[in-house]
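Following up on my earlier thread - several people asked me to post the actual chain instead of describing it. Fair enough. Here it is, all 151 residues.
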Amino acid sequence: MSERVIGYIEGGVVIDHIPLGRVWEIIHLLGIDKIKSLGRISVGDGFESNQMGKKGILKIEGISLSEYQLNLIALIAENVTVSIVSKGQIVNKIKTKIPNILKNVIYCNNVNCISNDPKEKIVPLIEYYLEKGFCCHYCNKFFKKDKLRFV
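Reply from S.P.:
Thanks for posting it. Predicted structure:
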Protein backbone atom coordinates (compact mmCIF):
# COMPACT_ATOMS: atom_id res chain seq x y z
CA MET A 1 0.00 0.00 0.00
CA SER A 2 1.40 3.41 -0.92
CA GLU A 3 1.67 6.12 1.71
CA ARG A 4 -0.07 9.44 1.06
CA VAL A 5 2.04 12.52 1.63
CA ILE A 6 0.76 15.96 2.54
CA GLY A 7 2.96 18.97 1.72
CA TYR A 8 6.09 19.99 3.61
CA ILE A 9 6.30 23.42 5.26
CA GLU A 10 9.42 25.35 6.24
CA GLY A 11 7.79 27.43 8.98
CA GLY A 12 4.26 27.70 10.35
CA VAL A 13 1.88 25.29 12.05
CA VAL A 14 0.69 21.75 11.59
CA ILE A 15 -2.68 20.87 13.14
CA ASP A 16 -2.93 17.10 13.36
CA HIS A 17 -5.34 14.48 14.74
CA ILE A 18 -8.38 16.52 13.74
CA PRO A 19 -11.59 14.48 13.96
CA LEU A 20 -12.85 13.40 10.54
CA GLY A 21 -14.78 16.20 8.82
CA ARG A 22 -13.68 18.97 11.20
CA VAL A 23 -10.77 20.35 9.11
CA TRP A 24 -13.00 22.77 7.19
CA GLU A 25 -14.58 24.10 10.40
CA ILE A 26 -11.11 24.95 11.71
CA ILE A 27 -10.13 26.61 8.43
CA HIS A 28 -13.27 28.76 8.50
CA LEU A 29 -13.08 29.60 12.21
CA LEU A 30 -9.44 30.70 11.97
CA GLY A 31 -10.26 32.74 8.86
CA ILE A 32 -7.61 30.95 6.82
CA ASP A 33 -9.99 30.79 3.87
CA LYS A 34 -9.97 34.61 3.74
CA ILE A 35 -6.25 35.36 4.16
CA LYS A 36 -4.55 36.11 0.84
CA SER A 37 -0.92 36.43 1.99
CA LEU A 38 -0.33 32.97 3.44
CA GLY A 39 2.26 30.56 2.16
CA ARG A 40 1.51 26.97 1.26
CA ILE A 41 -1.59 25.38 2.80
CA SER A 42 -2.13 21.63 2.79
CA VAL A 43 -5.47 20.18 3.80
CA GLY A 44 -6.15 16.50 4.29
CA ASP A 45 -9.15 14.65 5.61
CA GLY A 46 -9.75 10.93 5.90
CA PHE A 47 -6.16 9.87 6.57
CA GLU A 48 -5.66 6.58 8.39
CA SER A 49 -4.84 6.95 12.09
CA ASN A 50 -4.02 4.27 14.64
CA GLN A 51 -5.50 6.45 17.41
CA MET A 52 -8.63 7.72 15.66
CA GLY A 53 -9.41 5.47 12.73
CA LYS A 54 -9.62 8.40 10.30
CA LYS A 55 -8.29 11.91 10.87
CA GLY A 56 -7.72 15.28 9.31
CA ILE A 57 -4.51 17.30 9.08
CA LEU A 58 -3.87 20.92 8.23
CA LYS A 59 -0.48 22.49 7.44
CA ILE A 60 -0.23 26.26 7.13
CA GLU A 61 3.00 27.95 6.16
CA GLY A 62 3.85 31.42 7.41
CA ILE A 63 1.56 31.78 10.42
CA SER A 64 1.63 31.45 14.17
CA LEU A 65 -1.40 30.92 16.37
CA SER A 66 -2.47 33.07 19.30
CA GLU A 67 -3.89 31.67 22.53
CA TYR A 68 -7.31 32.83 21.32
CA GLN A 69 -6.93 30.80 18.11
CA LEU A 70 -5.76 27.73 20.04
CA ASN A 71 -8.90 28.08 22.21
CA LEU A 72 -11.05 28.20 19.06
CA ILE A 73 -9.41 25.03 17.78
CA ALA A 74 -9.96 23.29 21.13
CA LEU A 75 -13.66 24.18 21.04
CA ILE A 76 -14.02 22.58 17.60
CA ALA A 77 -11.66 19.64 18.14
CA GLU A 78 -10.27 19.13 21.63
CA ASN A 79 -7.02 17.17 21.96
CA VAL A 80 -5.66 17.90 18.49
CA THR A 81 -1.90 18.31 18.22
CA VAL A 82 -0.60 21.70 17.07
CA SER A 83 3.05 21.57 16.03
CA ILE A 84 5.03 24.78 15.63
CA VAL A 85 7.47 24.44 12.73
CA SER A 86 10.61 26.56 12.21
CA LYS A 87 13.29 25.93 9.58
CA GLY A 88 11.56 22.69 8.64
CA GLN A 89 11.73 21.28 12.20
CA ILE A 90 9.06 20.91 14.87
CA VAL A 91 10.12 23.20 17.72
CA ASN A 92 7.05 22.87 19.95
CA LYS A 93 3.98 20.66 20.25
CA ILE A 94 0.76 21.75 21.92
CA LYS A 95 -2.17 19.48 22.78
CA THR A 96 -5.29 21.64 22.66
CA LYS A 97 -7.73 21.61 25.52
CA ILE A 98 -10.66 23.79 26.44
CA PRO A 99 -9.50 26.26 29.10
CA ASN A 100 -11.42 26.71 32.35
CA ILE A 101 -12.07 30.38 31.55
CA LEU A 102 -12.99 31.67 28.08
CA LYS A 103 -12.81 35.45 27.94
CA ASN A 104 -14.19 37.05 24.77
CA VAL A 105 -14.19 33.74 22.86
CA ILE A 106 -17.83 32.60 22.98
CA TYR A 107 -21.09 34.34 23.83
CA CYS A 108 -23.55 33.44 26.56
CA ASN A 109 -26.61 31.65 25.12
CA ASN A 110 -29.01 33.53 27.37
CA VAL A 111 -30.41 36.35 25.20
CA ASN A 112 -31.37 38.25 28.37
CA CYS A 113 -27.84 38.10 29.85
CA ILE A 114 -26.19 41.46 30.51
CA SER A 115 -23.19 40.30 28.48
CA ASN A 116 -25.39 40.18 25.36
CA ASP A 117 -26.67 43.76 25.77
CA PRO A 118 -24.72 45.93 23.27
CA LYS A 119 -25.28 49.04 25.43
CA GLU A 120 -23.44 47.45 28.36
CA LYS A 121 -20.24 46.62 26.40
CA ILE A 122 -19.39 43.72 28.71
CA VAL A 123 -16.81 41.18 27.53
CA PRO A 124 -18.30 37.67 27.51
CA LEU A 125 -16.78 35.54 30.26
CA ILE A 126 -17.63 31.85 30.15
CA GLU A 127 -16.44 29.15 32.53
CA TYR A 128 -15.96 25.56 31.37
CA TYR A 129 -16.75 22.54 33.54
CA LEU A 130 -15.86 19.12 32.14
CA GLU A 131 -19.04 17.37 33.34
CA LYS A 132 -21.54 20.25 33.08
CA GLY A 133 -20.40 22.21 30.03
CA PHE A 134 -20.19 25.97 29.72
CA CYS A 135 -21.51 28.51 32.24
CA CYS A 136 -21.84 32.27 31.90
CA HIS A 137 -20.01 34.16 34.64
CA TYR A 138 -22.73 36.85 34.74
CA CYS A 139 -26.06 34.99 34.61
CA ASN A 140 -24.92 31.45 35.58
CA LYS A 141 -26.74 29.84 32.63
CA PHE A 142 -25.26 26.50 31.55
CA PHE A 143 -25.13 25.36 27.94
CA LYS A 144 -23.51 22.54 25.97
CA LYS A 145 -20.87 22.50 23.24
CA ASP A 146 -23.45 22.16 20.47
CA LYS A 147 -24.85 25.60 21.39
CA LEU A 148 -21.62 27.62 21.06
CA ARG A 149 -21.71 31.04 19.40
CA PHE A 150 -18.25 32.41 18.70
CA VAL A 151 -17.35 36.05 19.32
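The chain has a mean pLDDT of 91. That should answer part of your original question.
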